[in-house]
Amino acid sequence: MPLDVTTAILQRRSIKTFKPDPIAPEILLQLVQLTIAAPSSYNIQDWRIVIVADPDQRAALGAACFNQPQIGQAPVNFVFAADIKAGEKDVTPIIEQGIQTGAWSEGTAAYFKKAIPEFAVAIGDKAREYAIKDAMIAATHTMLAAESLGLSTCMMNGWIESKVKAVIGAENDPDLAIALVLPIGYSAEPRKNPGRMPFEFNVSLDRIDRPYHG
Ligand SMILES: Cc1cc2nc3c(=O)[nH]c(=O)nc-3n(C[C@H](O)[C@H](O)[C@H](O)COP(=O)(O)O)c2cc1C
């Protein structure tokens, strides 16, 4: 039985050592399904996810991540990349799917078709930031889905983007940004919680200067 969302959120920890046990293909498939169920701006689905499972590829990815050992140990690593220019490309298949599913009326679809490229222009050099937001939301889905399915993860920022891109074969694509590397596997260590600050530290009510006390 998968863990419920609340339990998965509360028990999850960033795991730094993994057993060599493989992830069964049907579990991997479920992880991918739960990942791409994530929302994205205009449903543009601008994440590009590379599943790095081959041992040589994992070793190369580990080297691109300052040799952090969890990359090579975990049987699978998801590299979350993002297409910075997705909003400028042909979004017809996404629009048509929205109509086919019955989720979007013809009016909504027409609005989206116009709004998506306009928004892409309006955000200008923030396009990278917006694409990375979507990829991070997908990565958060993966992280919690993995926990729910008995797996562990460690979100990772510690890498050199150009090197990660070279490992996944995207070194010549200037429009692809790397958002996150996520090793996934069966934990080989106890869950240790480094704790969180009290709400007052960074949660406020109505205005930033009115601390929330719970
Ligand atoms: C965006 C992001 C990047 C992170 N990068 C790394 C990393 O490169 N290496 C690492 O060991 N942990 C990394 N962490 C894990 C954090 O250190 C960890 O989430 C934090 O200490 C809180 O611990 P917890 O996840 O167990 O609650 C990262 C976490 C996040 C959210």
Secondary-structure map with pairings?
Elements: H1 5-11, H2 25-35, E1 47-52, H3 55-64, H4 69-73, E2 76-83, H5 92-100, H6 106-122, H7 127-148, E3 152-153, H8 161-167, E4 176-185
Antiparallel strand pairs: 1-2, 2-4, 3-4
Helix pairs in contact: 1-7, 2-7, 3-8, 5-6
Bound molecules: flavin mononucleotide.
Reading the helices and strands in chain order gives HHEHHEHHHEHE
Strand content: 5-15%
Shape assignment: globular
Secondary-structure content class = alpha+beta
CATH level 1 name: Alpha Beta
Bound molecules: flavin mononucleotide
Oligomerization status of the protein chains: single chain
According to CATH, what is the topology? NADH Oxidase
CATH superfamily: NADH Oxidase
CATH architecture: 3-Layer(aba) Sandwich
What level of helicity do the residues show?
40-55%
Roughly how many Å apart are the termini?
32 Å
Sequence of strands across the biggest β-sheet: 1-2-4-3
Mean pLDDT, rounded to whole units? 97
Characterise the protein shown here.
By secondary structure, the chain is of the alpha+beta class. It has one domain: 3-Layer(aba) Sandwich (NADH Oxidase). Helix content is 41%, strand content 12%. It is built from 8 helices and 4 strands; from the N terminus they run ααβααβαααβαβ. It has helices at residues 5-11, 25-35, 55-64, 69-73, 92-100, 106-122, 127-148, 161-167; strands spanning 47-52, 76-83, 152-153, 176-185. It has a 4-stranded antiparallel sheet, sandwiched between helices. α2 packs across α7 (127-148). The radius of gyration is 19 Å and the shape is globular. The two termini are 32 Å apart. Bound molecules: flavin mononucleotide. Flavin mononucleotide (FMN) binds next to loops.
